[in-house]
């Protein structure tokens, strides 16, 4: 922060020139803000540097907000122009492109503009191509992409949206590290190749997984492609076909059923974990629920007084992974005992599956209950599927319990609760909770 540290009237101050790319939005020229710390009281500027760092962070946040607001305004004007042009039977095209169309179309557009009259501030620029396309920078890519994806995000819970954003945010942060904050139209194939080379070095030197690099490349490719289609930006597909070869598919890890019965479900094995976390482990062991499905249960979806006690997996306040994920799972064995102790669900972890997974995985590690690093809380779902297969449970019932698609013609309403309960009782762990 030494570059932004200045002196004024006996006080340390923050001094910074407004960058050229933001001068149209911030006309202050040179910013001078007092730290309110006297030079005499802080001659080495130790405290002042901390204040300057804070003022600089606030200023850069302000500039980002200005750019985002400007981009949003331009984007909305552009979308409005596209909608208006389509309503009049035209596609929206920039003025230079309109001028190259055939004379009949140009005449039709001019006629529409004349009919609109001078007072219509939307139609004339829409049909004549006078509204500039929005511009986006790498730093605003996520916000712009999220704006386009709003319809598909509407049904997600806040935790699901966080998980959706995080890998994209990481990919953008990595791209900024390599090429800086460019306008999207300025990104070249060379930039994309530099990004791929940067990842290749990390794979070799830091032993990062190739799959991690390919995820970054895939997210960036999709975001740029989606924005290009939405706003007709004319972007080149610079990240297309850049995936690195050699990606190894990680084999799923499942606990051995005997290990679950003898170790995970042993008395006192999970002492120290809170009651809700232990109950979710018991529930997943007998039902194969995904972590997010277990943590989303509430009194509304827990049916203990039914003839066949069960839980309902529904998209209430969150988006299910697949349409087949909506299902009813009977409660047997330790799952039934656990849910009888928690008839209203798990409020501590509601819409917070990541926190639960981190806690449980750490607890399993410290108790020597993870045979390998690939064994996690989620492994109980894989164990559940293996147990169903070992018991020769019909494929249709397995699919109904797992929430998987059943690849055969569907007849009737599927396996009943009773049929599913009978299947689960065949594999229930013969242990009692203490």
From TrEMBL:
User: What are the UniProt keywords, alphabetically?
Assistant: DNA integration, DNA recombination, DNA-binding
Instruction: Report if keyword Magnesium is assigned.
Output: no
> Could you provide one GO biological process annotation from this protein's UniProt record?
DNA integration
Q: Which GO terms describe its molecular function?
A: DNA binding
**Pfam families annotated for this entry?**
Phage_integrase (PF00589)
Transmembrane regions listed in the UniProt entry: none
Please report the stretch or stretches of sequence annotated as the Tyr recombinase domain. 250-425
What family is this protein classified in? Answer: Belongs to the 'phage' integrase family.
Task: List the protein's name.
Answer: Integrase
Its source organism is Amorphus orientalis
């Amino acid at each position: 922060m030494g570059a932004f540290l200045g002196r004024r009237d006996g006080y340390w101050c923050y001094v910074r020139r407004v960058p050229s790319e933001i001068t149209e939005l911030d006309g202050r020229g040179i910013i001078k803000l007092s730290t309110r710390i006297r030079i005499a009281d802080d001659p080495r500027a130790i405290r002042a540097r901390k204040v300057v760092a804070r003022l600089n962070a606030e200023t850069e946040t302000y500039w980002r907000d200005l750019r985002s607001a400007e981009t949003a305004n331009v984007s909305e004007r552009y979308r409005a122009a596209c909608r208006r042009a389509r309503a009049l039977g035209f596609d929206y095209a920039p003025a230079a492109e309109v001028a190259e169309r055939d004379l009949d179309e140009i005449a039709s557009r001019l006629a529409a503009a004349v009919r609109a009259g001078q007072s219509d501030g939307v139609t004339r620029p829409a049909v004549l191509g006078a509204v500039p396309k929005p511009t986006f920078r790498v730093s605003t890519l996520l916000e712009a992409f999220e704006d386009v994806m709003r319809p598909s995000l509407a049904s997600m819970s806040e935790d699901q949206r966080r998980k959706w954003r995080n890998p994209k945010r990481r990919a953008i942060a990595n791209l900024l590290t390599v090429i800086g904050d460019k306008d999207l139209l300025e990104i070249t194939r060379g930039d994309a190749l530099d990004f791929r080379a940067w990842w290749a070095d990390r794979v070799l030197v830091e032993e990062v997984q190739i799959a991690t690099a390919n995820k970054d490349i895939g997210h960036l490719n999709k975001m740029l492609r989606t924005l290009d289609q939405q706003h007709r930006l004319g972007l080149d597909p610079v990240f297309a076909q850049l995936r690195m070869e050699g990606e190894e598919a990680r084999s799923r890890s499942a606990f051995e059923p005997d290990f679950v019965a003898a170790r995970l479900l042993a008395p006192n094995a999970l002492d120290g974990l809170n009651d809700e976390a232990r109950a979710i482990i018991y529930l997943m062991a007998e039902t194969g629920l995904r972590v997010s499905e277990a943590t989303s249960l509430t009194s509304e979806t827990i049916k203990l007084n039914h003839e066949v006690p069960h839980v309902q997996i529904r998209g209430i306040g969150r988006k299910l992974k697949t349409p087949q994920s909506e299902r009813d799972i009977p409660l047997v064995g330790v799952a039934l005992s656990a849910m009888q102790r928690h008839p209203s669900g798990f409020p501590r972890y509601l819409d917070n599956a990541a926190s639960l997974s981190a806690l449980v995985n750490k607890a399993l590690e410290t108790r020597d209950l993870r045979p390998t690093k690939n064994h996690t809380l989620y492994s109980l779902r894989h164990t559940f599927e293996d147990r169903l297969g070992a018991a020769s449970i019909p494929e249709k019932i397995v699919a109904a319990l797992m929430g998987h698609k059943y690849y055969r013609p569907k007849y009737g309403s599927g396996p009943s609760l009773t049929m599913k309960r009978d299947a689960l009782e065949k594999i229930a762990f013969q242990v009692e909770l203490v």
